[in-house]
Write a structure and sequence with these properties.
Helices cover about 60% and strands about 10% of the residues. The protein has helices spanning about 5-25, 35-40, 60-70, 80-95, 105-115, 125-140, and strands spanning about 25-30, 50, 70-75, 100.
């Protein structure tokens, strides 16, 4: 199995876990509407809340999460400096609200695709590219 195949397999496993946890009621937090479209195209059907595209302040976002009383919140912000800052801030505030911030998916995606993917919105396109590369490798063998 090639490195690309292993990477794609790991990403697919991770997405399957995300689909499962999201369908069980965990709230997924992303930056914008394009991130939502990308996750939807990858089969994530649970509730996804965009924090930056909504035009609301950071305080309003926190109030919304507290109002929903969600036990687990999956943070999937972008992998750039600003996304990392938002992830850290949100995680701290969620812990203070006694909600469980889940950074597992964000960290694993960052380690698997961090150099190649800068945001969640480009994740679906990245997976398609990996599949195409695998197809070309099979044809060239």
């Amino acid at each position: 199995m090639s490195t690309i195949e292993r990477k794609l397999e790991e990403i697919n496993k991770l997405l399957e876990e995300l689909r499962q946890i999201s369908s069980e009621g965990a709230l997924v937090i992303v930056e914008g509407k394009r991130d939502i479209r990308s996750l939807r195209s990858l089969g994530v059907k649970g509730e996804i809340l965009p924090v930056k595209a909504s035009g609301r302040s950071f305080i309003d976002i926190l109030a919304e999460m507290e109002r929903r009383r969600v036990a687990e919140v999956i943070l999937l912000m972008d992998f750039d400096r600003r996304g990392r800052e938002w992830t850290t801030r949100l995680a701290k505030h969620l812990e203070a609200m006694r909600a469980k911030p889940n950074l597992t998916f964000w960290r694993r995606l960052l380690s698997l695709a961090g150099r190649d993917v800068k945001d969640i919105e480009s994740l679906a396109r990245y997976i398609k590219t990996l599949k195409e590369k695998i197809g070309k490798d099979i044809l060239n063998e």
